[in-house]
Structure prediction request, 174 residues.
Amino acid sequence: MTAAMLLADLRGRGFTVESADNKLMVRPSSLLSEDDRQRIRKALPGLRVALHAQPTDHTGGESRPYRLAPPDAEVAHAEPWDDGAIARFQARVLRIQRRGFGEQDADDLAERLHLRDVHADQRVMCLECRNLSGTLATGLRCGNHKAAVVMRDLPAELVTQMQVCPGFVEVDQR
Prediction:
């Protein structure tokens, strides 16, 4: 399990995970099992990185957790988009909206995926995987959770996180 997956797992089970003064705090700590504690110790450096890599709001108050930071947005839009990039973007927005994300969040997440393409980054989002089922309202589930090494029920924080997944199968682009 990657640090990002562990972070999503902990948050999905109701834990608050924060980093302050170079210390990791998981609350309520009294509910952590010994297995949880061992996994946290093992993944500590990666957890700190994952915490600092969380999408942040760059709008001055408007809640848009998936919005690109201005420097990343400049890179994503540095070159004009061709017809293929526009079609991929539109298909991604529709697919993400079908999972229960609002129009603005879907647009912001699709833009993150476009930036990933610009950088030729090999990481993926669960939102692009054929094995993902459900919606935000009904719950998101991984149909290949054993190969993906994740829990069957997935929190939104995990399905929107760029990651390397051994169980990933790209959704049909049609």
